[in-house]
Specification:
α3 (about 125-150) packs antiparallel against α6 and α4 packs antiparallel against α5. This protein folds into four domains: about 15-55; about 75-90 and about 270-350, Efflux pump adaptor protein, beta barrel domain (Elongation Factor Tu (Ef-tu), domain 3, Beta Barrel), CATH 2.40.30.170; about 90-120 and about 235-270, RNA polymerase II/Efflux pump adaptor protein, barrel-sandwich hybrid domain (OB fold (Dihydrolipoamide Acetyltransferase, E2P)); about 125-235, no CATH class. Residues about 1-10 and about 65-75 have low confidence and may be disordered. The chain has helices at about 15-30, 35-55, 125-150, 155-175, 185-205, 210-235; strands at about 75-85, 90-95, 100-105, 110, 115-120, 240, 245-250, 255-260, 265-270, 275, 295-300, 305-310, 315-320, 320-325, 325-330, 345-350. The strands form four sheets. Strands 1-10-15-12-11-16 form a six-stranded antiparallel barrel. A four-stranded antiparallel beta sheet has the order 2-9-7-4, with no helix packed on it. The chain has about 350 residues and is α+β, with helices and mostly antiparallel strands.
Length: about 350
């Protein structure tokens, strides 16, 4: 028996090849006279072969859809990082001394100038210490001025009169000794009064000694240091703005206790905003430099703002297990609706 097949015009699948093979074997067996037992084993072998080929075939893989255009980086993007809008100048302000809040001079949202009073602690004790220190300084200055000016004529006259009286008393004791002898103690006392009065007159008549002037000047320096320290302690009861800006938060209320170093007021210059990134990979660090132009996409505003890199961190950070380098980016423009804390995506694109 001869069999003729038309030539295949397309590539058969595995299933079609299995069916055609089984059909060919069946046709061959129909034309031959084969013992039934041999025919039985041959059919079993053909069936086993059919099952083996069918089980060995793998299912058609499920096609994977291509990534959406939104998931792909922009054409020409060489580096990308996430970031946040922050003020160029901001500060958490605190006090250097402890105390109870006596007054708050500002509220959240107020605009202040450099040097404006923000918060005042109770200062009665500091005021008293300052007054005492200033009084001690004035007394020391007066003593030095008196030494430099020398004695007054009235002081010299009083000292001279005291000396004359002491001498007259001693002379009287000496004359009376002929009639009523004076006791040794009386004579010693009269002589001591004369010596004391003479020493006082000599001190007033002589110029001020250098040692006395040096001692007086040392007292003035000590008193001045005390007054300066008291003035500083009084200043520490005040919190003043170090720069012009807006008050964005206040952590204390009237009557509450403030601790040294505790942040109590946040001050920021919201007129100048910039971008700080958080996740620029170390693998992309070689693709950026100070002055590199970037494109900043503000999520909340759905708009792009151009800018340039102004600072690259010298030390790395770790974010999500990856080594990253923070960047600071200056914006070429600042829309009025831009706010501190908004999320942004930064792209460095090829020229």
């Amino acid at each position: 028996m001869s069999l003729e097949f038309e030539p295949q015009r397309h590539k058969d699948t595995k299933e079609e090849r299995r069916r055609k093979g089984f059909f060919f074997v069946s046709l061959c067996l129909r034309g031959w006279k084969i013992p039934s037992r041999f025919l039985y084993f041959l059919r079993v072998f053909a069936l086993a072969l059919f099952l083996l080929v069918g089980c060995s075939s793998q299912p058609t893989p499920t096609p994977v859809p291509p990534p959406s255009p939104a998931a792909l980086p922009a054409v020409g993007t060489v580096a990308r990082a996430a970031g946040t809008i922050v003020p160029v100048q901001k500060a958490l302000l605190g006090l250097t001394s402890a105390g109870r809040v006596a007054s708050l001079a500002v509220a959240v949202g107020d605009q202040v100038a450099a040097g404006d009073l923000l918060l005042q602690l109770e200062d009665s004790a500091a005021q008293a210490q300052l007054a005492q220190a200033q009084a001690a300084l004035l007394a020391a200055q007066a003593n030095l001025a008196e030494l430099r000016a020398g004695p007054q004529p009235a002081q010299v006259a009083v000292a001279q009169a005291r000396l004359d009286g002491a001498r007259a008393h001693l002379d009287q004791l000496t004359l009376d000794r002929l009639l009523t002898p004076a006791t040794p103690s009386q004579l010693a006392e009269a002589q001591a009064l004369v010596r004391s009065a003479q020493a006082e007159l000599d001190l007033l008549s002589a110029d001020a000694r250098p040692s006395a002037l040096a001692a007086a000047e040392a007292l003035i320096a000590e008193a001045a240091a005390g007054a300066q320290s008291a003035q500083a302690a009084l200043a520490h009861t005040e919190l003043r703005a170090p720069f012009a800006g807006s008050v964005t938060s206040i952590a204390l209320a009237l009557g509450e206790m403030a601790l040294p170093g505790q942040p109590v007021i946040t001050l920021a210059d919201l007129s100048r905003l910039q971008v700080e990134t958080t996740d620029l990979s170390e693998r992309d660090l070689g693709r950026v430099a100070v002055g590199t132009p970037v494109v900043v996409f503000v999520d909340a505003l759905q708009r792009e703002i151009s800018g340039q890199i102004t600072r690259i961190a010298l030390q790395s950070s770790v974010a999500g297990g990856d080594v990253v380098y923070p960047l600071v980016i200056a914006l070429d423009e600042q829309p009025p609706e831009l706010r501190w804390g908004m999320s942004v995506d930064v792209e460095v694109r090829s020229p």
